[in-house]
């Protein structure tokens, strides 16, 4: 996973005025997932973007957990 993938997610969230930074990468990823789920439920993001971001965040979380 490249940093560009997570930046895609951050940029998508910024379009809705959402900026997430907790100082903990894993917590950031979890919060991004929750925010995207809410946006998807309210039909504010497309199915395609939602699935793409879910995959990106899942992969990023797995990679972070491997580093521990």
TrEMBL record:
Domain of life: Bacteria
Pfam families, per the entry: YqgQ-like (PF06014)
SUPFAM superfamilies: YqgQ-like (SSF158379)
InterPro entries: YqgQ-like, YqgQ-like_sf
Gene3D superfamilies referenced in this protein's UniProt entry, alphabetically: YqgQ-like (1.10.287.760)
Name by which UniProt lists this protein: Uncharacterized protein YqgQ
């Amino acid at each position: 996973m490249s940093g560009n993938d997570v930046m895609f997610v951050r940029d998508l969230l910024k379009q809705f005025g959402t900026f997430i930074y907790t100082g903990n990468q894993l917590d950031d990823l979890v919060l991004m997932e929750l925010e995207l789920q809410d946006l998807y439920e309210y039909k504010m993001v497309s199915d395609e973007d939602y699935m793409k971001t879910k995959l990106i965040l899942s992969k990023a979380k797995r990679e972070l957990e491997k580093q521990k």
